[in-house]
Specification:
The chain has 224 residues and is α+β, with helices and mostly antiparallel strands. Helix content is 24%, strand content 8%. 16% of the residues are buried. The strands form 2 sheets. Strands 1-6-4-5 form a 4-stranded antiparallel beta sheet, with helices on one face.
Length: 224
């Protein structure tokens, strides 16, 4: 499966949009997760609408571009959606990388966590981390940071992390996130027996499909 790696240097992982657990699509509002640090300015975070989740059939899954057009009228209203494939990958991401990409390392971006208190000398942009990580190194770092702040490295309620993120963005001065995005490569298996990897949804293949506008880019598009 393709992956996007994200972890912060100051507190544990967070999400910008909630993903519904409903089987098809959901627009229900998230229930508030009550925290000690109440902030009336962030009450809107309790009203964030879940993004739609789609479960295409095997037939619908055969043509990615047609399926995008099918869900676009609704999905485009959210800016993000989740598509659950009807095919199961042969192996999880970690196993694919360990077997097929030995020595794999990546250098994450560094995103500043603040909206305010910028000066004329500041640049609101993603910087490049001075560190490179293996997938395992990144996981260890992420779990350590989470455990230091929350006394555990497991999953925390998504509504709580949403609020933590926006508190940091609005109040923070020096917080940053190491963000493993746009990493060149693919976590799709190269096995001929992996039906998902051999489908048109493989993100190394999808941009080059005949009707894809991305085919006009000469360089490869990072997909991890």
């Amino acid at each position: 499966m393709p992956m996007k790696l994200k972890q912060k240097t100051d507190f544990s992982s967070f999400s910008g949009h909630k993903q519904s657990r409903k089987s098809r699509k959901s627009t229900k509002h998230l229930k508030a997760f009550h925290v000690d640090r109440t902030n009336d300015d962030l009450e809107w975070t309790n009203q964030i609408t879940e993004c739609p989740v789609y479960h295409p059939s095997v037939e619908e899954f055969e043509d990615p571009l047609r399926y995008f057009q099918q869900i676009a009228p609704e999905a485009s209203k959210y800016g993000i959606c989740k598509i659950v494939p009807p095919l199961i990958p042969m192996a999880p991401t970690g196993v694919v990388i360990k077997k097929e990409k030995p020595g794999f390392r990546f250098t994450p971006k560094v995103q500043p966590l603040r909206f305010s208190r910028w000066t004329l000398n500041d640049k609101n942009s993603f910087l490049i981390s001075s560190k490179s990580y293996t997938l395992r190194d990144f996981e260890v770092m992420a779990n350590r940071v989470s455990a230091n702040k929350y006394c555990l490295s497991g999953c925390l309620p998504s509504a709580y992390m949403e609020r933590e993120f926006w508190l940091e963005m609005t109040r923070g001065k020096k917080g940053t996130v190491e963000y493993g995005v746009n990493v060149d490569g693919s976590a799709f298996s190269s096995s001929s027996d992996d039906h998902l990897a051999n489908s048109k949804w493989n993100l190394k293949k999808l941009p080059r499909l005949p009707r894809s506008a991305l085919r006009f880019f000469e360089n490869d598009i990072p997909v991890m």
